Amino acid sequence: MKKIFIAFFFIAISFRTLADEGMWLPMLLGQQVYDNMVKKGLKLTKEQLYSINKASIKDAVIIFGNGCTGEIVSNEGLIFTNHHCGYEAITDASSINHNYLHDGFYAKSKQEEIPAQGLHVDFLIKIDDVTKEIEDSVKGLSGTDRRAKVQAVITAINARYSDDSKSILARVSPLFKGNQFLVFVYQRYNDIRLVGAPPESVGKFGGDTDNWEWPRHTGDFSIFRVYMSKEGMPAKYNPDNVPLKPKYFLPISLKGVKEGDFAMIYGYPGSTNRYETSFGVKQKIDIDNPSLVNLRDVRLKYMFEEMKKDPAVKLQLAPSYASIANYWKFYDGESKQLVKYDIYDQKKGQEAVFQIWAAGKPEFEHIFSDWAKAYDNWRPYSKQRVYLNEGIFGSPLIAFAASLRQLENALVRQNGGSVSEILNAIGESRKKFLAEENKVSDERILGTVTFMFFKDIDKNQHPIGFFEGLKGSFGDLKEENTYKKYAAAVFNNTMIFDDAKWNAFVANPDATVLQNDPAYAYASAFLKNWQGKYYSFYQDFTQKNNELGRLYLKGIMEMDPKKIRYPDATFTMRLTYGNVKSYNPRDNVHYDYVCTMKGVLEKYKPGDYEFDLPENLIDLAKKKDFGQYLDKQRNDLVVTFITTDDITGGNSGSPVMNGNGELIGLAFDGNYEALSHKIAFDPNYNRTICVDIRYVLWCIDKLGGASNIINELKLVK
Question: What span, in angstroms and rounded, lies between the C-alpha atoms of 512 and 494?
Answer without folding.
Answer: 14
